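Team,

Forwarding the record for the chain on the shared tracking sheet. I've put the sequence and predicted structure together so nobody has to dig through attachments.
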Amino acid sequence: MCGIAGHISSAGADHELVRRMCDALVHRGPDGDGYHCGETAGLGMRRLAIMDVAGGAQPVRNERGDVTAVFNGELYNFPELRAELLAKGHRLASSSDSELITHLYEDYGDDLVRRLRGMFAFALWDDTRQRLLLARDRLGKKPLYYRDHRGSLTFASELKAMDVPRTVDLAALHHYLTYRYVPAPHSIVAGVRKLPPGHVLSWQAGRTDVRRYWRLDASPRPVGDEAGEAERLRELLLDVTRRRLAGERPVGAFLSGGLDSAAVVAAMARVSNAPVRTFTIGFTDPRFDERGPARAVAARYGTDHRDYVITPSAIESVAEVARRFDEPFADASAIPSLAVAQLSSEHVTVVLNGDGGDECFAGYRRHLLMARLDRMRVPGVLGRGLSAAGSALISRGSPGTLPRQAGWALRTLGQPPARRYAGLMTCFDHAAKRALYTPEVAASLAHLDSAALVDEAFAASRAGTTLGRAVDADISTYLPGDLLVKADISTMAHSIEARSPFLDHHLMEWAAGLPDHFRIRKGRTKHLLRTAVAPWLPAETLAQPKKGFGVPLAAWLRTSLRELVHDTLTDHTAGSRGIFQPELVSRMLAEHMAGRDHATRLWTLLQLELWHRSADRPAVPV
């Protein structure tokens, strides 16, 4: 695990730039660094040593020394790949998984990515062909930014390492206001892109090509009876968990009171020879506190358990999120995520989590709502009429009032499934953004429809039902754009590695074809998962409603954050950007203070403005 960076140019690589970029990534790899300094290519990395601590330095090379790579991630099929390469006569100089990349490239070329099972972002330089290959894992667990500019290419694990002008990309901002994160391939910085999950990029002689190598196939598949499928799920979960315990550094787990992390801890206890180390964040507010259910799981398995009550300072929490995240990021659960990562880092270097359980098995309330709404099919003409009537009510109603709620219901019923789902994911919809923008910005973005991203995800899905397509859309949008960004940034900020058993692509491909009645039954989400792990877990864990990490945003914005949010969003600096109409922002603030709930929208605007201000700092250490 590490942070990687590089600069490729036919005119000559800038090796000092590469070193400065790696200096900005030291939190991702405090255990060492390494560089390749070629005429055309400069590659660099910062290492967090987990596999082959003594001998796993990078960059890595093939036997001839003409293929060089830097690698960020973990390969969970490392033993099988290593045995295969040795059987073919390759000479391996270490016991690290990163070294396999160059040898697999010799045998399979760009298709080596299809052989990898794990999380990764890597850069490989083929000196003979003068060609760069960048790759990102199937689901987007490991980040990779790049800039293709005037025939040269710069890349890095984090945007903060990129030495580029911090000019805002208005299209990225437009999508951020809807989803509260910046979706790939956009980045908030003009001219910088994210390599999308499941894609590779090649550069040769100043020309760049990006192509997809994997997409989850959610086609319906034949299934057995429930007992048989539950047994198969237990087998898969034990296998993917066992693979994620590899390494030479201490391993633990984030344990909330929810089903997914509890299932992972139960699996760890079954395949580990030592007590599992578990970590839980608790809150004084009972709406967010899950210490009781977490302790029940810890007691059942005799884990080495630590829980902590945090009473986060609102001001410090806002500053921490703005400092750690390179792009505006408005998922407030980043606050407790950063806290549990910091506390865990005092005891372990690797943590397993339950990320992906909701996406594999339909665990969100919106999945349940989509399944229910799917029974209410409205013909085209009538649907358009309902949608128009609902939009009219929304435009005339105030937030929280009955007319506005009725308008949302009518508009949702009148929309096709993809638009229904986009609405459930939306912070600012198109009309709200158009009203908020200055006339100039509104005109420049009038053609850009953020909901089309969900349309595209639904259209690309091979799932046979609306619920299946909604789950598939989550996996291609919300999962890599929000959840995996939060997990990566929160853990790497404190130099620990997060591993997610549910996000093993073998398990996900198996789960993707499940029928709806194995996902949701009698109003209960994640039916098959609950059935499969019922023998492993306390009854209270199985019955626990989903909470997720949360903070009392609405109250904070009226109390401890009141002065900060008002001053930040209404001062001359914010008003002079020419993006939003200041009087509308001020009205939203006043309405929230008077009791209407604009917390999510205000938090989204606050994180954007704080990003603007942080972007005024130097991009890399100088």
